[in-house]
Amino acid sequence: MPDPGQRAEFSWSPPPKSGCMLRDAMAQRTRMRRRDDLATALVADWDGVHSSLEHRYLRDVERPHALPRGIRQAWARRGRRTQYGDVLYDEYAVAVELDGRAAHPGAAQSQP
Question: In degrees to the nearest 10, what's the CA dihedral of 31, 34, 37, 38?
Answer without folding.
Answer: -60
